[in-house]
Amino acid sequence: xxxxxxxxxxxxxxxxxxxxxxxxxxxxxxxxxxxxxxxxxxxxxxxxxxxxxxxxxxxxxxxxxxxxxxxxxxxxxxxxxxxxxxxxxxxxxxxxxxxxxxxxxxxxxxxxxxxxxxxxxxxxxxxxxxxxxxxxxxxxxxxxxxxxxxxxxxxxxxxxxxxxxxxxxxxxxxxxxxxxxxxxxxxxxxxxxxxxxxxxxxxxxxxxxxxxxxxxxxxxxxxxxxxxxx
Length: 230
Ligand code: OAD
Fold this sequence. Notes:
Strand order of the largest sheet: 3-2-1-7-8-9
Bound molecules: 2'-O-acetyl adenosine-5-diphosphoribose
Helix content: 25-40%
Number of helices: 9
Structural class: alpha/beta
Low-confidence stretches: none
Largest sheet: 6 strands, parallel
């Protein structure tokens, strides 16, 4: 086995205290996607959008990685295969746990982006609509998050990894958002063994050849342990 590609979603950070989107009481039952996660929502009410991400940034800063994040970092450090994490999460818990190869396809709470000139820099703790871009000075600062209707980041690199994957695992993701939900099909087509690890079956569970259901902090360390045993 030369390459292990792991897709993670909000479920892996749930036990670190960061709410998921679509579980009962999740973020999308408290906020409308159109208001806080689209370019149109940001144009309509930038203050509301900044407040939403400022609160999430504060919460993410206080969160600690759990045993599922740590197990994936251990897998990368100890397995002879090349381990790549593609995450839909905007927190930095994989990196804090020690993972080195992490592609944030939906952006990062820790990043700021100028909507005018495209300059990127480290996000301040709290952003306000009239904060100037440090490069072009336009007050067009936005969170460096991929919103609905925008193209996810690192897609060329991601397709390359999926093409080379010998093992593809999806952890803590509902399979509701594309293109991530279709990665299993791409990996399978290219010959990878596919595994879903989730609290409950995702919308695309039938595309996987192996499944493990339970809490990420229980099933991920166990799965990693077995992979390392060979
Ligand atoms: P969702 O909220 O859609 O799904 C979370 C998944 O995690 C569900 O399938 C749960 O069953 C599972 N889950 C919950 N608790 C868990 C636990 N303790 N252990 C294991 N699994 C658990 O989150 P995502 O699939 O990540 O995008 O959502 C994908 C994208 O939709 C997000 O990146 C975000 C959102 O809109 C943008 O904002 C662009």
